[in-house]
Amino acid sequence: MPRKRAFAPAAPAFDQPLSDLNITPLIDVMLVLLVMMILTLPTVLHKVPIDLPQGYAPPSETVTHPLVLARDGTVTLDGAALSDAAMPARFKALDADRAALLVMRTDPDARYDRFDQVLAEVKRAGITRLGFAGNEALVE
């Protein structure tokens, strides 16, 4: 007796157009765009506050006060040693003098955290007439 063969159900005929929309590529593109926005927006929105000069004309009798940060972290102002405790009072006095211009020169081997501490004291005193010297090699 011949065996009966089990046939799979008949596949549907594809003679009619599919009415279902394939949204998988659309979802893939949207996810890629979402990931790109997540990665790029924080860098675009990150702001560093910088006080730029607003057309300030220095007085003709400008007096330059050199502030030197040495390699070992010692600070001198006008050639005299300046302690951390005396910094705020000396910087406030410089800020009160309209003819004073503070010029900061830092040894290239000085520690950055010490430079940051001194610069923070300058900012706390409200000094806006500040220049940096010794960076000529970095301008190239």
TrEMBL record:
One Pfam family recorded for the sequence: ExbD
UniProt entry keywords in alphabetical sequence: Cell membrane, Membrane, Protein transport, Transmembrane, Transmembrane helix, Transport
Predominant location category: membrane
The UniProt record lists the keyword Lipid biosynthesis: no
InterPro entries named in the record: ExbD
Native source organism of the sequence: Sphingomonas kyungheensis
Gene3D superfamilies: 3.30.420.270
Protein family per UniProt: Belongs to the ExbD/TolR family.
Protein name (record): Biopolymer transporter ExbD
Topology of this chain in the membrane: Single-pass membrane protein; Single-pass type II membrane protein
Transmembrane segments: 23-45
Record has Protein transport as a keyword: yes
Places the protein is found: Cell membrane
